[in-house]
Design brief:
The structure holds two protein chains of two kinds. By secondary structure, chain A is mainly alpha-helical. Chain A has two domains: 72 residues, no CATH class; 213 residues, Orthogonal Bundle (MetI-like fold). Chain A is 78% helix and 0% strand. Chain A is built from 13 helices and no strands. In chain A, helix 5 packs across helix 11 and helix 8 packs antiparallel against helix 11. The model of chain A has no long low-confidence stretch (mean pLDDT 87). By secondary structure, chain B is α+β, with helices and mostly antiparallel strands. Chain B has three domains: 126 residues, Periplasmic binding protein-like II (D-Maltodextrin-Binding Protein, domain 2), CATH 3.40.190.10; 127 residues, Alpha-Beta Complex (Dipeptide-binding Protein, domain 1), CATH 3.90.76; 218 residues, Dipeptide-binding Protein, Domain 3 (Dipeptide-binding Protein, domain 3, Roll), CATH 3.10.105.10. Chain B contains 16 helices and 21 strands. In chain B, the strands form five sheets. In chain B, strands 12, 13, 14, 15, 16, 17, 18 and 19 form an eight-stranded mixed β-sheet that branches. In chain B, strands 8-9-10-1-11 form a five-stranded mixed β-sheet. Chain B has a four-stranded antiparallel β-sheet with strand order 4-5-7-6. In chain B, strand 15, helix 12 and strand 16 form a beta-alpha-beta unit. The longest helix of chain B is centred in the C-terminal third of the chain and has 18 residues. Chain B starts with 7 loop residues before the first helix and ends with a strand. The N terminus of chain B is likely disordered. Classes of the chains: A mainly alpha, B alpha+beta. Chain A: It is found in: Cell membrane. Chain A: Its main location: membrane.
């Protein structure tokens, strides 16, 4: 276990290094000059060169990347070019909001997805099954921006049950989390349905039924724990997709997370922020996957970590 | 050398701002209350030496003051922290007498030393101010560094003398820019690079709270030196709000001013609904949207071709694309800018004449070129209209729709034959015709990376522009504007641009907002002049 963990952590560091290199390189070759954004439209050529020198952007790629890594090794993500604020501070101020929304969103999509999947598996072939699978299709293909606005309009503006966007209380959290939940539930419901159907066909379920166990005991004690296994691995992978959806949902609901920060930084070519947010997101995805792998043997003793 | 207040010309200089200073706020105005303003993006910085976007510009204006200021809702100068000023006869020395007893938000009294420090800070290359270039006429600018500017001299605690290296008719406007705001050295030193988040000024409001990515709260400065203002106890800026959502919240009575304005997709709905349209205030702004034609790239090096393009563009149709939110433009200057040539009709929309001009240039079969455009609505749609207009005279323009930074890069590097300026269009820094020339049409901006994307450089016109800006004597103001009008007519003669439209401003406000409409379309404070608006409770 320990050796496995060490190997995985080394792998994770290598992945993050790779991500940092690729992102840094893409930003380096991008035909957009951050110095122009800082210097403004009235700047003289001298001012522009002076700023370029101060930021070290006149140096070759290797030197710039080396300096960035050296800072990173000391936990320094640099300062924003335009806001002049520490990137670590900007991210730290927004990370709790994103984590909160992410956890609530995942909880919602699991509750919705698993519930729909189980119901569909049990009612397999009936009209309800077809309706549920149809619904999952709609949620998978619905555009995030439209669903967000629709929910906001109906439940906040028309019915007034929740605030119209913003951040602070649990009431602010409900709509964005449910939006993410609805949008993500489709995948889970389909996965859960097929996984559940497979398990229900298995021999041990027949044995359990033959022993005369009640229907609910067969489903919840024997079938469900086995059917849910592949789903756990999926959550780890899902974090990556989730990060993408969060940018849109955060922007519609005015949720002050890192998605918003990244979007603004990209428009302003604020390289230190783009790098910082990319690395933090990559970290979340790597950790999510690692966590899913580490937890798997606890849920399913057949899995061994090597 | 220096003559104190003797000539009639100087008396005139002083008379204007003093009369203008008598701005009477709304007599019905009530003190108290708070308003909520929303924005999509977080505020970049509140450091007056750094902030240079339309979002933080008016915020900084309310937190800080400079020596000069504008009469609310107008483009007319009035003294700010300076009580009065004198200009030497040669136009090279400005002596400002400061108001006594003005306090910074930290309680310390503002003195001439602070003015010297602030001007030195903004021009020090280490500050990386995007506005440093505006102060180029102050003596010692070329050697600006940590020791400040040699041309700024403290005469006594309430008098500061600024010496210029050349006469500069725009200098008082420059002193009204946010970049010229007076800041206390000790607060800047204490905050270091974070001064933009912990601003300390002399303005009508002080920053009470800033939760990154969520909200900023401006609190009334009870010690403000202008009596009676501001009216509001506080202004709350909520950031991260999608403009469409801000509009819903306005209708729900939760928002007073949606800072990003009316989203283009909602414009017709808002204007078509009398209940919503009643919340809209319309005003002009000092903006021109234009197409640049790169005079260094064939075939745009031929003036006939540039004129042909000018005659091929149907400006009325482009104005329709943006729901009539603009007026067609005839020249680089917008109509409300001093120096605008009223009796000039511009190039008429005439497809046949345009074709003939192309044929005269030996391009009867047309040619292929590229049009660079920013990729946010409505700019790609406008680019398509331009593309169709050009196709009608045989020019095949391929559209390069890119992110803003990429378009600016291509324009600056001179690799873009044509650029539609939408989303990056020129909005004046101050209401003076010179502001539309230097960086975007003059030789200074035509170098690699400059904002003069047509790379147009006419030394005779440049000389005329310099001459106009040397006419600092207010008695010659009319002659100066005439000279500027000539400069822009000279530009149109060579047609490096197609001036397309001048956008108008549409600001929305809630029912409870008070104060005259001009405060909501203030040419200097966008979207609202926070110091003078009030709530009806």
């Amino acid at each position: 276990m320990a050796a496995y963990l060490v190997r995985r952590i080394v792998q994770a560091v290598l992945i993050l290094l790779g991500v940092s290199f690729i992102t840094f390189f893409l930003l380096y070759v991008l035909p957009a000059d951050p110095v122009r954004q800082i210097a403004g439209r009235s700047a003289t050529a001298e001012t522009v060169e002076n700023i370029r020198r101060q930021l070290g952007l006149d140096q070759p790629f290797v030197v710039q990347y080396g300096r960035y890594l050296a800072g990173l090794a000391q936990g320094d993500l640099g300062r924003s070019y335009l806001q002049k604020t520490e990137v670590a501070e900007l991210i730290a101020s927004r990370l709790p909001a994103t984590l909160q929304l992410m956890l609530a969103g995942i909880a919602c999509e699991l509750a919705l997805g698993l519930g729909m999947g189980i119901a569909a598996a049990l009612l397999r072939g009936r009209l309800a099954d077809q309706a549920l699978m149809m619904a999952s299709f709609v949620t998978v293909s619905a555009p995030q921006f439209v669903v967000s606005l629709l929910l906001l309009y109906v439940f906040a503006v028309k019915l007034g049950w929740f605030p119209i966007g913003g951040y602070g209380t649990w009431r602010h959290l409900v709509l964005p989390a449910v939006t993410l939940g609805i949008l993500g539930s489709g995948w889970y419901s389909r996965m859960m349905r097929s996984s559940m159907i497979d398990v229900l066909r298995a021999d041990f379920i027949r044995t359990a039924r033959a022993k005369g166990l009640t229907r609910s005991r067969v489903i919840f004690r024997h079938a469900l724990p086995n059917a849910v296994l592949p789903i756990i691995a999926m959550i780890g992978i899902d974090i990556g997709i989730f990060m993408g959806g969060i940018v849109v949902v955060e922007s519609v609901f005015g949720w002050p997370g890192i998605g918003q920060l990244a979007w603004q930084a990209i428009q302003r070519v604020d390289i230190p922020i783009i790098m910082g947010v990319t690395l933090v997101s990559a970290c979340a995805i790597v950790l999510g996957n690692l966590l899913a792998d580490v937890l798997a043997p606890f849920v399913d003793p057949r899995i061994r970590l090597r | 050398m220096k003559k104190w207040l003797t000539s009639t010309a100087l008396a005139l200089t002083l008379a204007l701002p003093v009369a203008a200073q008598d701005y009477t706020p709304d007599p019905a105005a009530k003190a108290g209350g708070s308003i909520t303003v929303t924005y999509k993006d977080d505020v970049a910085t509140l450091d007056p030496a750094i902030g240079y976007d339309w979002q933080n510009w008016s915020m900084i204006k309310s937190l800080f003051d400079g020596l000069m200021d504008y009469v609310p809702g107008t483009t007319q100068l009035r003294p700010g922290l300076a009580e009065s000023y004198e200009i030497s006869e040669d136009g090279l020395t400005y002596t400002f007498k400061l108001r006594a007893g003005v306090k910074f938000h930290n309680g310390r009294e503002m003195t001439a030393e602070d003015v010297k420090y602030s001007l030195g800070r903004v021009t020090d290359p280490a500050t990386q101010s995007p506005g440093a270039g505006f102060f180029g006429s102050i003596a010692g600018f070329d050697k600006a560094g940590p020791d400040g500017l040699s041309g700024v001299e403290v005469v006594d605690p309430l008098t500061v003398k600024i010496t210029l290296s050349r006469p500069d008719a725009t200098f008082l406007h420059v002193m009204a820019l946010n970049f010229a705001s007076v800041v206390p050295k000790e607060a800047v030193d204490a905050a270091g690079a974070d001064f933009g988040k912990q601003p300390v000024g002399t303005g009508a409001y002080k920053l009470a709270e800033w939760t990154l990515g969520q909200r900023l709260v401006f609190e009334k400065n009870a010690d403000y030196w202008r009596p009676g203002v501001p009216f509001l106890d506080s202004v709350v800026f909520e950031v991260g709000q999608e403009p469409v959502v801000a509009l819903l919240r306005l209708q729900n009575g939760e928002v007073d001013v949606p800072g990003d304005g009316i989203p283009p997709a909602k414009f017709q709905e808002v204007m078509g609904d009398p209940a919503q349209a009643a919340h809209v205030v319309i005003g002009g702004q000092l903006q021109t949207g234009y197409i640049t034609l790169n005079v260094k790239t064939p075939p745009f090096d031929k003036v006939e071709v540039r004129k042909a393009v000018n005659m091929a563009i149907n400006k009325d149709r482009i104005v329709q694309i943006i729901n009539g939110r603009a007026v067609p433009a005839t020249q680089p200057l917008p109509p409300s800018m001093p120096g605008y040539t009223k009796d000039y009709a511009g190039y008429a929309y005439d497809v046949e004449a345009a074709k003939k001009l192309l044929a005269d240039a030996g391009l009867a079969d047309g040619f292929e070129t590229e049009l660079y455009v920013m990729n946010t609505d409505p700019n790609p749609r406008i680019a398509q209209a331009i593309q169709q207009d050009l196709a009608a005279i045989g020019i095949k323009a391929n559209i390069q729709s890119l992110a803003q930074a990429n378009v600016i890069e291509a324009g600056g590097a001179g690799t873009a034959p044509m650029v539609w300026s939408g989303g990056m269009a020129w909005i004046a820094d101050f209401p003076d015709p010179s502001n539309f020339y230097g960086p975007i049409l003059g030789c200074a901006g035509a170098g690699d990376g400059g904002w003069n994307w047509s790379k147009f450089c006419d030394e005779a016109l440049d000389a005329k522009a310099t001459e106009a800006d040397s006419m600092a004597d207010p008695a010659k103001a009319e002659d100066r504007l005439k000279l500027w009008s000539d400069v822009y007519m000279g530009v149109m003669e060579q047609a490096p641009w197609v001036p397309v439209f001048n956008e108008e401003r549409y600001t929305m406000k809630s029912d409870r907002m008070g104060g005259e409409d001009a405060l909501y379309v203030d040419p200097v404070s966008i979207p609202v002049n926070y110091d003078y608006v009030w709530v009806k409770q």
